[in-house]
Specification:
Blueprint lengths: L9 H7 L54 E9 L2 E12 L9 E3 L3 H6 L8 H4 L16 E5 L4 E5 L24 E15 L3 E14 L2 E14 L2 E17 L4 E9 L9 E9 L15 E5 L3 E7 L2 E8 L2 E5 L11 E6 L5 E6 L13 E10 L10 E10 L4 E10 L2 E11 L5 E12 L5 E15 L4 E11 L15 E3 L22 E3 L4 E13 L3 E12 L5 E13 L2 E11 L7 E10 L1 H5 L14 E10 L4 E11 L5 E10 L6 E9 L4 E9 L2 E15 L2 E5 L6 E5 L21 E4 L8 E4 L9 E3 L3 E4 L6 E5 L2 E3 L1 E9 L2 E2 L5 E4 L4 E3 L5 E7 L2 E7 L7 E7 L10 E6 L2
Parallel strand pairs: 1-5, 39-44, 46-53
Antiparallel strand pairs: 1-2, 2-3, 4-5, 6-7, 6-37, 7-8, 8-9, 9-10, 10-11, 11-18, 12-15, 13-14, 13-16, 16-17, 18-19, 19-20, 20-21, 21-22, 22-23, 23-24, 24-27, 25-26, 27-28, 28-29, 29-30, 30-31, 31-32, 32-33, 33-34, 34-35, 35-36, 36-37, 37-38, 39-40, 41-43, 42-45, 46-47, 46-50, 48-49, 48-51, ...
Length: 876
């Protein structure tokens, strides 16, 4: 009988080479494609592979040409073209379907609910048992397509069948609280100087922690030692200790111990007590920050496209009638939104939604809050640790309004704040608030006062101008903050300096403002601005400034920065002027600076790294000059860059000279990011002075599987577990490799987001294979989450299997004790990876008796050194 399929081995080879596991089959060249014509229905005759039907396993799954074997596959799942997850999915044989694999994915109703499908909207699905597979035909217009070659499952579900959730939403059920572990972060630096003066200094920063379930315990301490010129200081300091945990239903963090209050309504304060505060990181990116709600009306099933500054930032499909879009991603700057509604008949309606934002604006319906109670905490001995309570709330109202307020209460202080923000469209965004405070100071005097604050932001896109922030705060003479009421005296130094009142009248004629406070000179008005202007494609001009005035004095605190920076063809440059005038100083500090950096490494070499996991080393030459208001000028020339394959060795060498008696100086520094920590070393010199400095930093993680050393830890980290896979590099993690046991730590994970963890398979040894080199984790705040990889360590072998004097049937399955499997090719040959030197293999080519056997094998120690071992074994 002739066959319908053109190449009888095509389907078989697709299965044999599929990445269902990393184990591959090497088929002899004798197994070649045989072209045939098509006259009858699909039927695969085993005689085409062998005259003996018993020499061929059951290959009925491949009769349909491209059909694949049912089973479990590790696939990327896309729902409506959005990546949902990467996981093992069980596929069952089916007829029909949107592809030629002959497979259908098996998902329970619970798993589809987690993926965002509203299964409760379909009565037929409610009848299914919890463990039953959902027939996608029960969801109108829903389809699945399995891209077998790329191991990608594409699921299409109509919008009406999905839950109403924001883009990027990750259900709390998928958040990973991490594993129990002890954590230690250390940073040690030292310096030894000589010349006209000698000094030895050492500094140690220790941050330790304990993770138990959802609870995080953290402690922060430092040690500082200085010796020189007959004076020695040796001091341990405890900075803070606190416990925190995530409260998912409230989208908040609970903190017990020593921490800081938020700074949105009141100034941030240190406290020792308890705080519960909402955490914006728990929201998807599309709901963080402020973005307006876009409303409109569609006449039919329409496509809505939203552009900002010429770029498409959002696109969706809506049903006829009124619609509201409230999950726009917040933009880094203001800019009007251009909304286009394209109807099903091709007609378009375009309108503009003006948009600007200030920091306090919240989305419609969003409540941001914080509740704090405890003792005021300061590092200054001149302040009392008073009991206080604080509460703040910010709520987004319709039509661009935001309402916010709060209160601070202690024995000697009562303050209440109330404010509102508004997106005014073409006129920008503004917020205004007033704080009423009643204070009792150290001398027993009582004061009432108010403080008013205005903030404004606006972008002029046509001109390229962005008023990022214009602000002004005015405080009456009787207004004091909570921290000012905690001072034990009306004036004094906050440092170790000793101040004498020459007039003995309790007041100071000429205040010294460095490390000095005086409650008679309270803050009056403060203006601030932050403006940038784009100059074509070659740079931008910026202006940043502030001015603080005080009661009972004409002294002012002024700061102004004006500059231009940009880049062109890899050349970066900047020109800056800084002005700084503090109260009590006779004149202002003014500095003019020019810097330029040239990518000489890029110019001198046209070679680029061919390894997709690596980037080429960099080499840059820099030139700079600074001049102060007296004409004192310093010029600097330097070279910096990176070395080694992973760019984990960086260096910087600089030489400086100047006029007006400025001494020549120079420095050379080098830092290395390693698997077990970071190292740094440097040398500085100038006339009559030289110094050697050095440092080491890193992390220690104690967990159930042992101890792992790492680079400095972040607050949230990922523990990579790939037992046996030693020395394997991690993608996008400079200098991070698995240790001798196959463990590594990736610091600074992103909380409540999918973190992609990938092994660089090019760095794996010959004796290591990985089932899947990529996984994703979603850590909570402060968690140490485990990213597990199934590494198979052992030899590779091309084994010829004989049963009753004949080769094992073609297509038979060979399974290892560890659960790994492969398929037998022609002449009984099977390619196996991750084999121990000795063991058993189970071979099966049918369901009947006599259609399975067991192989016992033993390889010599020298097999570990061979890329592929060839051997023949009996299957009994």
């Amino acid at each position: 009988m002739t066959l319908k399929i053109k190449y009888i081995t095509l389907a078989v080879m697709q299965v044999l080479f599929a990445r269902r596991r990393v184990y591959r089959i090497i088929l002899p060249a004798t197994l070649s494609a045989i072209p045939l014509s098509a006259l009858a229905d699909n039927y695969f005759n085993p005689a085409f592979l062998s005259d003996d039907p018993n020499a061929v396993a059951d290959l009925s799954h491949f009769e349909k040409g491209d059909s694949q074997a049912p089973g479990k596959y590790h696939v990327d799942i896309y729902l409506n073209k959005q990546l949902v997850s990467t996981e093992d999915v069980n596929f069952k044989a089916t007829k029909g379907g949107q592809d030629d694999t002959g497979l259908a994915p098996c998902f329970t109703t619970g798993r589809l609910e987690q993926m965002g499908v509203n299964t409760k909207a379909f009565p037929d699905l409610a009848k299914l048992a919890p463990e039953q597979c959902v027939p996608f035909a029960a969801i109108p217009e829903a389809t699945t397509e399995f891209d077998f070659e790329h191991q990608q499952l594409n699921i299409s579900v109509p919008q009406a069948a999905l839950k109403q959730s924001a883009r990027g939403y990750i259900p709390p059920e998928e958040w990973d609280q991490g594993i129990n572990a002890l954590l230690l972060n250390y940073d040690f630096t030292g310096g030894n100087s000589g010349g006209d003066s000698k000094e030895d200094s050492y500094y140690l920063n220790l941050q330790s922690g304990l993770n138990l379930g959802a609870w995080r315990l953290r402690d922060y301490s430092t040690w500082n030692y200085t010796s020189g010129e007959g004076d020695t200081q040796n001091k341990w300091e405890h900075i803070s200790t606190y416990v925190e945990r995530t409260i998912a239903p409230l989208k908040a963090e609970l903190t017990l111990g020593e921490s800081y209050t938020p700074s949105d309504v009141f100034d941030s304060l240190g406290f020792r007590g308890v705080q519960i505060a909402s955490d914006d990181n728990m929201l998807p990116d599309s709901l963080k920050g402020f973005a307006p709600t876009v409303r409109g009306i569609a006449k039919s099933n329409a496509r809505v496209t939203i552009k900002q500054n010429g770029y498409v930032i959002y696109q969706t499909y809506v049903s006829p009638g009124a619609f509201a879009i409230n999950d726009l991603y917040p933009t880094s700057s203001s800019g009007d939104l251009q909304v286009t509604v394209k109807e099903s008949d091709g007609s378009e309606n375009t309108f503009t939604v003006p948009y600007s934002a200030v920091p306090l604006l919240q989305r419609e319906g969003r409540l941001k809050y914080a509740l704090t109670a405890g003792k005021y905490r300061s590092t200054n001995d001149d302040q009392d640790e008073v009991n206080f309570a604080q509460r703040t709330a910010i709520y987004g109202l319709p039509h661009g309004f935001t309402l916010y307020g709060g209160s601070q209460v202690s024995n000697d202080y009562h303050a209440f704040a109330l404010g509102a923000g508004l997106n005014m469209g073409d006129f920008g965004a503004i917020s205004a608030d007033i704080t009423q405070a009643n204070s009792t100071l150290a001398d027993g005097s009582q004061h009432d006062g108010q403080s008013v604050r205005f903030l404004y932001a606006k972008a002029l896109n046509d001109l390229g101008t962005n008023f990022q922030l214009l602000g002004y705060r005015y405080s009456t003479e009787g207004f004091y903050t909570l921290d000012e009421t905690t001072y034990k005296n009306m004036s004094g130094y906050t440092g170790d300096n000793e101040w004498k009142d020459e007039d003995h009248d309790g007041k100071q004629d000429k205040p010294v403002w460095t490390d000095y406070y005086d409650l008679y000179y309270t803050k009056k008005g403060k203006a601030q601005l932050n403006i940038s202007q784009q100059v074509g494609k070659i740079g931008s001009i910026f202006v940043t400034g502030s001015e603080q005035t005080y009661w009972h004095t004409d002294e002012k605190d002024r700061m102004l920065q004006v500059g231009y920076n940009g880049s062109w063809n890899g050349i970066s440059y900047s020109l800056t002027w800084n002005y700084d005038k503090s109260p009590g100083e006779e004149e202002a500090d003014q500095i003019y600076a020019f810097n330029i950096s040239l990518p000489i490494g890029q110019w001198l070499s046209s070679n680029h790294s061919a390894d997709i996991y690596r980037s080429a080393n960099t080499t840059n030459m820099s030139f700079g000059t600074t001049t102060d208001q007296h004409g004192k000028t310093t010029g600097t020339t330097g070279i910096n860059g990176t070395l080694l394959a992973d760019n984990n060795l960086s260096y910087n060498v600089q030489e400086s000279d100047g006029n007006h008696g400025t001494s020549n100086s120079g420095n050379a520094n080098m830092s290395y990011q390693g698997t077990y920590g970071n190292l740094q070393a440097g040398y500085n010199y100038s006339d009559g002075y030289h110094q050697v400095n050095y440092g080491v930093s890193g992390g220690v993680v104690v967990h159930r599987n042992g101890v792992t050393l790492s680079q400095p830890l972040g607050d949230t980290n990922i523990l990579v577990k790939a037992p046996g896979a030693a020395g394997v590099e991690l993608e996008n993690a400079t200098g991070v490799k698995t240790d001798w046991r196959g463990y590594a730590v990736i610091p600074y994970a992103t909380t409540y987001r999918q973190n992609r963890v990938a092994l660089n398979t090019n760095s794996m040894g010959q004796n290591v294979d990985i089932d899947d080199a990529v996984t994703n984790v979603v850590p909570t705040q402060g968690a140490l989450v485990r990213a597990e990889f199934n590494a198979h360590v052992g030899v590779r072998a091309l084994m010829t299997l004989m049963h009753n004097g004949k080769p094992v049937p073609f297509g038979a399955t060979v399974s290892q004790k560890a659960g790994n499997s492969t398929i037998v090719g022609d002449d009984g040959q099977a390619y196996l990876a991750g084999l121990p030197l000795g063991g058993m293999l189970e071979v099966q080519w049918g369901e009947g008796t006599g259609q399975h056997c067991v192989v016992k094998y033993q390889l010599p120690e020298s097999a570990k050194q061979q890329p592929v071992n060839k051997l023949s074994e009996r299957c009994q």
